[in-house]
């Protein structure tokens, strides 16, 4: 792990919770966001608060034994939690309360499928050993790229300067997460043909837009229609696909476009 | 967000405030240059390294908690995010102390073999078996996790205090005082959650009693080297002072809602060398 392009020590030393104290969020009282955006924002908030659940899936594989991975995940979790806090503050000004108990109710809906997920992940993790970490890293990269595009699209669509600035700050932190995941994925995929085959199979068959496993399908469709439909939306989707295709062994994958088609999102 | 509310007569632990005031990098406050003049003795170094390993194992511990119903409790997971962050920096502070004493960071030193004991098989379960058994247990498992978290805080607190006294190092004593201050809020959260959950649910109390009868300490010890564990037990709970310290923990465990003397002595027995 010494050859890593991503400097974990530097990352941990500079990791901070996203700041919004200098932003005039009160301006939303005079210029509130529209219903469509608030619904999307609510989705994003839930996804950010749920990050710790994804950690669980990562942790059930051999990756947790590596110090760099642990260090990154500790900071990553906290940054994402604060993204949730920032977004829920915006929602709060619009009279929408996201409290911890509501998040809990959301997780309860997952039922059996969710309970079995860590088991499934672990079994796969055991079988494929360290190569499976490569899959997780590629998966993580795809999710973080998606998050950046989603926040950028949201900022473009709303044309609200305060929201745009907040989303820009959040996206900037997501970019550091991308850097970690891609540097990990690239190294691990490059070093193992088996990892490449496995990653291609897992992403190609199982990847779905971030939040699909925790939100109702209609919410996923709403957010994808809002952010990823039409020519501009597709352009953003292709950017994510192009980035994923750049990883060793993943050339030609179009998982984002494919998932949009599957959800019936108009191009 | 309903992070503040009344639990009986007490104010509930404010998770949001805890997250907002999390304490990170401590490197500037560690008086590291002091160790050049008065380095730590080998026993103190060994304790610092072992405590670093325990504090640094948050991701392993999180995994064990999150494959159960505990991951569905957003208040608990919100706490754990900041808890892991603070423990990361406690481990980093201990690493800095090791380096200032001319030693390698704890993760760079190979660990010995783990202790082989059939009675610890429950603590040694992997995520798959934990996830499977947790399906049956449901929400009461959260009480088990917060109560073991609380007892773990009592035990590590005893260990830090012992190290501060034995090391005869003012710099280390000051670092330990800072660490205990950070950990105080972790203890407060676990205390708050455990008492409430144990008092509210007989099933949670029963499940906790059952777990505590065989639990090994501190949390995560089963993954640590056998000889380091023996060293820890002797160092912290050996001799008259150690026995007294274990008895104090025994009494505290016994007085938790729904627990009793039998559970207290089961925990204390596991602490002694």
Query: How many distinct folded domains of chain A?
Result: 1
Nearest-integer average pLDDT of chain A = 86
- Provide the low-confidence segments of chain B as ranges: 1-9
Shape of chain B: globular
Q: What is the helix tally of chain A? A: 12
Please estimate the helix content of chain B: 55-70%
Radius of gyration over C-alpha positions of chain A, nearest whole angstrom: 18 Å
Radius of gyration of chain B: 18 Å
Q: How do the SSEs of chain A run, as a string of H and E?
A: HHHHHHHHHHHH
**Number of strand elements of chain A:** 0
Category from helices, strands and their pairing of chain B: mainly alpha
Q: Can you write the helix and strand succession of chain B as a string?
A: EEHHHHHHHHHHHH
- Give the CA-CA distance, first to last residue of chain B: 46 Å
Q: How is the CATH topology of chain A named? A: Ribonucleotide Reductase, subunit A
Q: State which percent range the strand residues of chain B make up.
A: under 5%
Q: Mind describing the biggest β-sheet of chain B?
A: 2 strands, antiparallel
Main sheet specs of chain A: none
CATH topology of chain B: Ribonucleotide Reductase, subunit A
């Amino acid at each position: 792990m010494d050859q890593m392009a991503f400097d974990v020590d530097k990352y941990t030393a500079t990791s901070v919770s996203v700041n919004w104290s200098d932003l005039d969020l009160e301006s939303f009282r005079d210029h509130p966001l529209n219903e469509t955006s608030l619904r999307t924002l609510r989705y994003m908030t839930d996804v950010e608060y749920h990050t710790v659940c994804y950690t669980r899936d990562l942790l059930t594989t051999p990756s947790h034994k590596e110090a760099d991975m642990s260090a990154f995940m500790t900071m990553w979790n906290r940054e994402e939690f604060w993204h949730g806090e920032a977004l829920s503050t915006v929602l709060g000004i619009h009279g929408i309360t996201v409290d911890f108990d509501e998040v809990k109710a959301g997780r309860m809906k997952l039922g059996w499928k969710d309970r079995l997920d860590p088991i499934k992940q672990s079994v796969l993790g055991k079988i494929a050993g360290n190569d499976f970490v490569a899959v997780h890293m590629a998966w993580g990269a795809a999710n973080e790229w998606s998050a950046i595009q989603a926040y950028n699209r949201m900022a473009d669509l709303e044309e609200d300067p305060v929201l745009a600035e907040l989303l820009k700050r959040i996206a900037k932190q997501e970019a550091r997460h991308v850097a970690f995941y891609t540097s990990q994925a690239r190294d691990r995929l490059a070093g193992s043909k088996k990892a490449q085959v496995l990653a291609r199979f897992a992403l190609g068959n199982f990847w779905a837009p971030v939040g699909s496993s925790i939100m109702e399908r209609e919410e996923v469709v709403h957010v994808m229609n809002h952010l990823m439909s039409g020519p501009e939306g597709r352009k953003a989707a292709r950017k994510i696909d192009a980035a994923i295709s750049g990883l060793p062994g993943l050339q030609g994958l179009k998982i984002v476009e494919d998932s949009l088609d599957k959800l019936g999102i108009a191009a | 967000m309903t992070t503040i509310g009344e639990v009986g007569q007490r104010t509930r632990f404010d998770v949001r405030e805890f997250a907002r005031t999390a304490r990170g990098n401590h490197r500037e406050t560690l008086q590291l240059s002091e160790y050049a003049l008065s380095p730590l003795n080998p026993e103190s170094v060994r304790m610092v390294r072992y405590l670093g390993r325990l504090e640094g194992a948050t991701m392993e511990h999180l995994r064990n908690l999150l494959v159960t119903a505990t991951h569905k409790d957003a208040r608990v997971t919100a706490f754990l995010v900041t808890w892991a962050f603070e423990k990361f920096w406690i481990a980093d502070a201990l690493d800095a102390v090791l380096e200032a004493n001319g030693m390698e960071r704890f993760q760079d030193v190979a660990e010995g073999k783990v202790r082989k004991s059939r009675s610890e098989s429950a603590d040694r379960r992997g995520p798959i078996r934990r996830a499977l058994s947790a399906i049956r247990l449901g929400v009461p498992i959260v009480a088990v996790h917060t109560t073991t978290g609380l007892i773990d805080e009592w035990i590590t607190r005893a260990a830090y205090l012992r190290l501060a006294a034995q090391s005869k190092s003012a710099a280390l004593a000051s670092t330990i005082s800072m660490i205990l201050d950070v950990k105080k809020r972790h203890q407060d959260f676990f205390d708050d959650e455990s008492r409430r959950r144990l008092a509210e649910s007989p099933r949670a109390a029963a499940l906790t009693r059952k777990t505590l009868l065989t639990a090994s300490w501190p949390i995560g010890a089963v993954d640590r080297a056998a000889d380091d564990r023996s060293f820890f037990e002797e160092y912290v709970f050996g001799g008259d002072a150690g026995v007294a310290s274990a008895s104090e923990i025994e009494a505290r465990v016994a007085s938790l809602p729904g627990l009793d003397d039998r559970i207290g002595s089961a925990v204390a027995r596991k602490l002694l060398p």
